[in-house]
Specification:
- There is one protein chain.
- The chain contains ten helices and seven strands.
- The protein has two domains: about 100 residues, Ubiquitin-like (UB roll), CATH 3.10.20; about 160 residues, no CATH class.
- By secondary structure, it is of the alpha+beta class.
- The chain is rod-shaped and about 125 Å long.
- Strands 1-7-6-5 form a four-stranded mixed sheet, covered by helices on one side. Strands 2-3-4 form a three-stranded antiparallel sheet, covered by helices on one side.
- Its main location: membrane.
- This is Calcium uniporter protein.
């Protein structure tokens, strides 16, 4: 008898010590209080609500339902539940983002208020490897379809964020666009002026050669002069190619000179070209994301991937 009394005393004090160590629950209820049965392929979890003291069944969809969603359903069913959590057998808390399919693979503890229920899910029949692979493909497809069909709230929130981002980018780009337009106008005027100056110089050169040929000297004297002028022009074009690695093509030369004036004017006007380009890229990406978000649902589903599996 003294030995029995000593064992009872040690058992009680050990329980008190465990309680003082911060255990997540104080009472452990046998597993028959929470049962899990499969009906039509879906698990049905039956438990006793603490406030109403009545049994309640919860049918879950293990492929798409998370632990957090299941716990919220339990709290909505009984408003007297202040705390409901799920722990693994080793005492670690199960994340709310865990799928019920993963939770039902092993034993776990369901804690409601200060009462812990030991739950042992039934063992399902083993499937063949081929059938299991097909089931996994079907589950994956169903999960993707469920996510795609229940993204209305997420889509609205994402669309609102993209619209706000577009407005912010446009506000930042507006003064830069105005400054860029002024700089481009100035660079365009200077480039056109340079082209007209080139035409005037060539016309002057041609007139001077004609005057020297017919009024001052003869062709016999001016022929070597024109030859060296032509050869000097060829050397100038070749030097342009050596320096720029581009052929002397008039549209390319015009664009190159335009960019030269543009960047020189940008420095004097403190126009940040890199920041402008970055904002334009962000604006294009945001517009593309918004366009894809507003596409019909059948255009955004991975149809090709589904066909490949078929």
């Amino acid at each position: 008898l003294p030995v029995f009394v000593l064992q009872v005393w040690l058992w009680r004090h050990a329980g008190a010590w465990r309680g003082r160590e911060g255990a997540p629950y104080s009472t452990l209820v046998p597993s028959d209080e929470v049962t899990i049965n499969y009906r039509h392929g879906l698990p049905v979890i039956t438990l006793t609500l603490p406030t109403r003291s009545e049994r309640c069944q919860f049918t879950v969809k293990p492929v798409v339902t998370t632990v957090g969603a299941f716990l919220q359903d339990v709290q909505r069913e009984d408003k007297g539940i202040e705390r409901v959590e799920v722990f693994a057998t080793d005492g670690n808390k199960v994340s709310d983002a865990t799928l019920m399919e993963v939770l039902l693979m092993n034993d776990f503890k369901l804690v409601i208020n200060n009462t812990a229920y030991s739950v042992s899910p039934p063992v399902k029949d083993k499937l063949s490897s081929e059938h299991a692979t097909e089931m996994e493909d079907i589950k994956s497809l169903v999960h993707r379809l469920f996510v795609a069909l229940h993204l209305e709230d997420h889509q609205i929130r994402k669309e609102r964020e993209l619209l706000q981002k577009l407005d912010h980018l446009k506000e930042e780009l507006l003064p830069l666009e105005q400054m860029k337009a002024r700089i481009m106008d100035s660079a365009g005027v200077k480039t056109s002026r340079l082209l007209w100056v080139g035409l005037a110089l060539m016309s002057t050169q041609g007139g001077a050669l004609a005057w020297l040929t017919w009024w001052v000297y003869s062709w016999d004297i001016m022929e070597p002069v024109t030859y060296f002028i032509t050869y000097g022009s060829a050397m100038a074009f070749y030097a342009y190619f050596v320096l720029t690695k581009q052929d002397y093509i008039y549209p390319d030369v015009k664009d190159r000179q335009f960019l030269h004036y543009f960047y020189r004017k940008s420095k004097t006007q403190h126009f940040n070209v890199e920041r402008y380009n970055k904002l334009k890229e962000d604006l294009a990406e945001a517009e593309e994301s918004l366009r894809r978000l507003r596409q019909p649902l059948h255009l955004r589903l991975p149809i090709q991937e589904i066909n490949d599996k078929d």
